[in-house]
Protein backbone atom coordinates (compact mmCIF):
# COMPACT_ATOMS: atom_id res chain seq x y z
CA UNK A 1 0.00 0.00 0.00
CA UNK A 2 1.50 3.35 -1.00
CA UNK A 3 1.50 6.31 1.37
CA UNK A 4 -1.35 7.91 -0.60
CA UNK A 5 -3.59 4.81 -0.48
CA UNK A 6 -6.28 4.33 2.17
CA UNK A 7 -7.33 0.93 3.58
CA UNK A 8 -10.40 1.08 1.34
CA UNK A 9 -8.06 1.50 -1.64
CA UNK A 10 -8.99 5.13 -2.25
CA UNK A 11 -6.31 7.73 -2.75
CA UNK A 12 -5.74 10.95 -0.86
CA UNK A 13 -8.69 13.23 -1.64
CA UNK A 14 -8.07 16.73 -2.94
CA UNK A 15 -8.79 19.74 -0.74
CA UNK A 16 -9.99 21.66 -3.81
CA UNK A 17 -13.76 21.33 -4.23
CA UNK A 18 -14.90 19.65 -7.46
CA UNK A 19 -16.55 21.69 -10.23
CA UNK A 20 -20.06 20.61 -9.13
CA UNK A 21 -19.55 21.76 -5.50
CA UNK A 22 -22.15 24.13 -4.07
CA UNK A 23 -21.81 27.03 -1.61
CA UNK A 24 -22.58 25.88 1.96
CA UNK A 25 -26.10 26.58 3.25
CA UNK A 26 -26.58 27.66 6.86
CA UNK A 27 -29.33 25.55 8.44
CA UNK A 28 -32.38 27.66 9.39
CA UNK A 29 -32.20 26.31 12.97
CA UNK A 30 -28.46 26.93 13.33
CA UNK A 31 -27.48 28.84 16.50
CA UNK A 32 -27.56 32.62 16.04
CA UNK A 33 -24.29 34.47 15.40
CA UNK A 34 -22.50 34.99 18.71
CA UNK A 35 -24.10 31.97 20.39
CA UNK A 36 -21.81 29.44 22.08
CA UNK A 37 -22.02 26.04 20.37
CA UNK A 38 -21.18 24.00 23.45
CA UNK A 39 -19.41 20.68 23.61
CA UNK A 40 -20.57 17.73 21.50
CA UNK A 41 -19.15 15.25 24.04
CA UNK A 42 -17.97 15.84 27.66
CA UNK A 43 -14.91 13.62 27.13
CA UNK A 44 -13.83 15.19 23.83
CA UNK A 45 -10.14 16.08 24.12
CA UNK A 46 -10.73 19.37 22.29
CA UNK A 47 -14.06 20.67 23.63
CA UNK A 48 -15.10 18.38 26.51
CA UNK A 49 -15.60 19.93 29.95
CA UNK A 50 -14.63 16.67 31.69
CA UNK A 51 -11.15 16.36 30.16
CA UNK A 52 -8.73 17.77 32.76
CA UNK A 53 -5.90 18.18 30.23
CA UNK A 54 -8.15 18.90 27.27
CA UNK A 55 -8.20 22.14 25.30
CA UNK A 56 -11.62 23.27 26.61
CA UNK A 57 -12.05 24.97 23.29
CA UNK A 58 -15.17 27.13 23.12
CA UNK A 59 -16.65 27.83 19.69
CA UNK A 60 -19.31 30.40 18.78
CA UNK A 61 -21.47 30.62 15.71
CA UNK A 62 -20.52 33.35 13.25
CA UNK A 63 -22.29 34.77 10.19
CA UNK A 64 -23.10 32.35 7.38
CA UNK A 65 -21.29 29.06 7.85
CA UNK A 66 -18.47 30.38 9.99
CA UNK A 67 -17.36 30.06 13.60
CA UNK A 68 -14.93 31.66 16.02
CA UNK A 69 -13.22 29.83 18.86
CA UNK A 70 -10.70 30.43 21.61
CA UNK A 71 -8.24 28.15 23.32
CA UNK A 72 -5.63 29.09 25.93
CA UNK A 73 -2.49 26.96 25.78
CA UNK A 74 -1.81 25.18 29.10
CA UNK A 75 1.42 23.57 30.35
CA UNK A 76 -0.13 20.14 29.56
CA UNK A 77 -0.15 21.14 25.87
CA UNK A 78 3.62 21.71 25.50
CA UNK A 79 5.86 20.15 22.89
CA UNK A 80 9.07 22.14 23.44
CA UNK A 81 9.49 23.94 26.80
CA UNK A 82 7.05 26.82 26.89
CA UNK A 83 5.62 26.18 23.43
CA UNK A 84 2.43 24.48 22.27
CA UNK A 85 2.74 21.05 20.66
CA UNK A 86 1.92 21.13 16.94
CA UNK A 87 -0.48 18.19 17.31
CA UNK A 88 -2.43 20.10 19.95
CA UNK A 89 -2.65 23.12 17.64
CA UNK A 90 -3.87 20.79 14.87
CA UNK A 91 -6.48 19.50 17.32
CA UNK A 92 -7.69 23.07 17.92
CA UNK A 93 -7.95 23.64 14.17
CA UNK A 94 -9.70 20.28 13.65
CA UNK A 95 -12.27 20.94 16.36
CA UNK A 96 -12.99 24.47 15.15
CA UNK A 97 -13.44 23.22 11.61
CA UNK A 98 -15.57 20.32 12.86
CA UNK A 99 -17.91 22.68 14.71
CA UNK A 100 -18.86 24.27 11.36
CA UNK A 101 -20.80 21.11 10.58
CA UNK A 102 -23.23 21.93 13.37
CA UNK A 103 -24.24 25.07 11.45
CA UNK A 104 -24.99 22.81 8.47
CA UNK A 105 -26.77 20.35 10.84
CA UNK A 106 -24.65 17.51 9.54
CA UNK A 107 -22.58 14.93 11.45
CA UNK A 108 -19.21 14.66 9.76
CA UNK A 109 -15.70 13.44 10.50
CA UNK A 110 -12.37 14.74 9.33
CA UNK A 111 -11.10 12.92 6.23
CA UNK A 112 -8.13 15.21 5.55
CA UNK A 113 -6.55 18.05 7.55
CA UNK A 114 -3.65 20.01 6.08
CA UNK A 115 -2.01 22.27 8.66
CA UNK A 116 0.49 25.13 8.42
CA UNK A 117 2.44 26.14 11.49
CA UNK A 118 3.45 29.73 10.80
CA UNK A 119 4.86 30.84 14.14
CA UNK A 120 5.31 29.26 17.59
CA UNK A 121 2.48 29.57 20.10
CA UNK A 122 3.67 30.12 23.71
CA UNK A 123 2.10 28.49 26.77
CA UNK A 124 -0.32 30.93 28.38
CA UNK A 125 -1.26 32.56 25.10
CA UNK A 126 -4.78 32.43 23.71
CA UNK A 127 -5.28 31.19 20.18
CA UNK A 128 -8.09 33.08 18.45
CA UNK A 129 -9.50 30.79 15.78
CA UNK A 130 -11.83 31.48 12.88
CA UNK A 131 -13.16 28.91 10.42
CA UNK A 132 -15.54 28.95 7.49
CA UNK A 133 -17.03 26.37 5.24
CA UNK A 134 -16.17 27.05 1.60
CA UNK A 135 -18.11 24.39 -0.35
CA UNK A 136 -20.20 21.21 -0.14
CA UNK A 137 -20.22 18.41 -2.70
CA UNK A 138 -22.45 15.44 -1.81
CA UNK A 139 -21.13 14.12 1.50
CA UNK A 140 -17.92 16.15 1.22
CA UNK A 141 -17.55 19.39 3.17
CA UNK A 142 -14.63 21.73 2.44
CA UNK A 143 -13.47 24.26 5.01
CA UNK A 144 -10.61 26.48 6.07
CA UNK A 145 -9.39 27.89 9.39
CA UNK A 146 -6.75 30.10 10.93
CA UNK A 147 -5.54 30.85 14.43
CA UNK A 148 -4.09 34.18 15.59
CA UNK A 149 -2.13 35.08 18.70
CA UNK A 150 -2.14 38.31 20.71
CA UNK A 151 -5.81 39.01 19.96
CA UNK A 152 -8.36 38.33 17.24
CA UNK A 153 -6.45 40.66 14.88
CA UNK A 154 -2.98 39.46 15.88
CA UNK A 155 -0.59 37.66 13.56
CA UNK A 156 -1.59 34.30 12.07
CA UNK A 157 0.18 31.47 13.91
CA UNK A 158 -1.56 28.44 12.39
CA UNK A 159 -3.90 27.68 9.54
CA UNK A 160 -5.50 24.62 7.99
CA UNK A 161 -7.64 23.42 5.11
CA UNK A 162 -9.87 20.42 5.61
CA UNK A 163 -12.19 17.91 4.03
CA UNK A 164 -14.91 16.45 6.24
CA UNK A 165 -17.18 13.58 5.17
CA UNK A 166 -20.77 13.30 6.35
CA UNK A 167 -21.49 10.11 8.30
CA UNK A 168 -24.50 8.47 9.95
CA UNK A 169 -24.77 7.75 13.66
CA UNK A 170 -23.69 4.16 13.01
CA UNK A 171 -20.17 5.45 12.27
CA UNK A 172 -19.86 6.02 16.04
CA UNK A 173 -21.76 2.94 17.21
CA UNK A 174 -19.85 0.63 14.85
CA UNK A 175 -16.36 2.01 15.43
CA UNK A 176 -16.69 3.51 18.92
CA UNK A 177 -18.36 2.56 22.20
CA UNK A 178 -21.96 2.02 21.17
CA UNK A 179 -23.30 1.74 24.73
CA UNK A 180 -21.95 5.20 25.53
CA UNK A 181 -23.39 6.65 22.35
CA UNK A 182 -26.79 5.19 23.19
CA UNK A 183 -26.53 6.37 26.82
CA UNK A 184 -25.76 9.89 25.59
CA UNK A 185 -29.05 9.90 23.71
CA UNK A 186 -30.87 10.19 27.05
CA UNK A 187 -28.68 13.12 28.18
CA UNK A 188 -30.91 15.80 29.76
CA UNK A 189 -28.97 18.39 27.75
CA UNK A 190 -31.23 18.26 24.74
CA UNK A 191 -29.10 20.65 22.71
CA UNK A 192 -26.24 18.22 23.00
CA UNK A 193 -28.48 15.30 22.08
CA UNK A 194 -29.79 17.17 19.07
CA UNK A 195 -26.31 18.17 18.03
CA UNK A 196 -25.04 14.63 18.24
CA UNK A 197 -27.97 12.60 17.03
CA UNK A 198 -31.19 14.14 15.89
CA UNK A 199 -29.65 15.76 12.90
CA UNK A 200 -28.76 12.49 11.23
CA UNK A 201 -30.30 9.46 12.93
C1 LIG B 1 -21.28 9.65 23.96
C2 LIG B 1 -21.52 10.79 22.95
C3 LIG B 1 -21.04 10.41 21.64
C4 LIG B 1 -21.24 11.51 20.66
C5 LIG B 1 -20.65 11.21 19.35
C6 LIG B 1 -21.66 11.15 18.30
C7 LIG B 1 -21.97 12.42 17.59
C8 LIG B 1 -20.80 13.37 17.49
C9 LIG B 1 -21.16 14.60 16.77
C10 LIG B 1 -20.26 15.14 16.03
C11 LIG B 1 -18.92 14.49 15.89
C12 LIG B 1 -17.91 15.50 15.71
C13 LIG B 1 -16.53 14.96 16.07
C14 LIG B 1 -15.65 16.15 15.93
C15 LIG B 1 -14.23 15.80 16.19
C16 LIG B 1 -13.40 16.64 15.29
C17 LIG B 1 -13.35 15.99 13.99
C18 LIG B 1 -12.51 14.72 14.05
O1 LIG B 1 -11.39 14.74 14.47
S1 LIG B 1 -13.23 13.26 13.51
C19 LIG B 1 -11.98 12.02 13.90
C20 LIG B 1 -10.95 11.85 12.83
N1 LIG B 1 -11.51 11.32 11.63
C21 LIG B 1 -11.82 10.01 11.48
O2 LIG B 1 -11.68 9.21 12.37
C22 LIG B 1 -12.35 9.58 10.14
C23 LIG B 1 -11.74 8.26 9.71
N2 LIG B 1 -12.15 7.98 8.35
C24 LIG B 1 -13.32 7.36 8.09
O3 LIG B 1 -14.04 6.93 8.96
C25 LIG B 1 -13.68 7.22 6.65
O4 LIG B 1 -12.56 7.40 5.84
C26 LIG B 1 -14.76 8.27 6.21
C27 LIG B 1 -16.05 8.11 7.02
C28 LIG B 1 -14.24 9.71 6.39
C29 LIG B 1 -15.08 8.05 4.75
O5 LIG B 1 -15.33 6.70 4.62
P1 LIG B 1 -16.32 6.14 3.52
O6 LIG B 1 -16.16 4.67 3.43
O7 LIG B 1 -17.66 6.67 3.83
O8 LIG B 1 -15.69 6.79 2.25
P2 LIG B 1 -16.32 6.83 0.83
O9 LIG B 1 -17.80 6.64 0.88
O10 LIG B 1 -15.52 5.94 0.01
O11 LIG B 1 -16.04 8.35 0.42
C30 LIG B 1 -16.74 9.42 1.05
C31 LIG B 1 -16.83 10.56 0.07
O12 LIG B 1 -15.50 10.99 -0.27
C32 LIG B 1 -15.28 10.79 -1.67
N3 LIG B 1 -13.91 10.36 -1.89
C33 LIG B 1 -13.31 9.30 -1.33
N4 LIG B 1 -12.06 9.22 -1.75
C34 LIG B 1 -11.84 10.25 -2.58
C35 LIG B 1 -10.71 10.70 -3.32
N5 LIG B 1 -9.55 10.08 -3.29
N6 LIG B 1 -10.85 11.81 -4.06
C36 LIG B 1 -12.04 12.47 -4.10
N7 LIG B 1 -13.14 12.08 -3.42
C37 LIG B 1 -13.03 10.98 -2.68
C38 LIG B 1 -16.33 9.79 -2.12
O13 LIG B 1 -16.68 9.96 -3.46
C39 LIG B 1 -17.50 10.13 -1.22
O14 LIG B 1 -18.18 11.27 -1.66
P3 LIG B 1 -19.70 11.18 -2.23
O15 LIG B 1 -20.48 10.29 -1.31
O16 LIG B 1 -19.53 10.62 -3.61
O17 LIG B 1 -20.19 12.60 -2.23
UniProtKB/TrEMBL annotation:
Localization (cell): Cell projection, Ruffle membrane; Cytoplasm; Membrane
Domain Thioesterase: from-to ranges: 82-148
GO cellular component: cytoplasm; membrane
Cross-referenced Pfam families: 4HBT
Catalytic activity: octanoyl-CoA + H2O = octanoate + CoA + H(+); dodecanoyl-CoA + H2O = dodecanoate + CoA + H(+); (5Z,8Z,11Z,14Z)-eicosatetraenoyl-CoA + H2O = (5Z,8Z,11Z,14Z)-eicosatetraenoate + CoA + H(+); (9Z)-octadecenoyl-CoA + H2O = (9Z)-octadecenoate + CoA + H(+)
The keyword Membrane belongs to this UniProt entry's keyword annotation: yes
SUPFAM superfamilies: Thioesterase/thiol ester dehydrase-isomerase
E.C. number(s) listed in UniProt: 3.1.2.2
Family (UniProt): Belongs to the THEM4/THEM5 thioesterase family.
Protein name: Acyl-coenzyme A thioesterase THEM4
Amino acid sequence: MSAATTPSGRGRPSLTPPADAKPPVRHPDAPAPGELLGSHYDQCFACGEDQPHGLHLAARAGEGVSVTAEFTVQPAHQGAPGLAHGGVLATALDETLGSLNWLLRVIAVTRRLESDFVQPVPVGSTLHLTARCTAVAGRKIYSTAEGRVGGPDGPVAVRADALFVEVKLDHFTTHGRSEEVHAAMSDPDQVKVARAFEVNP
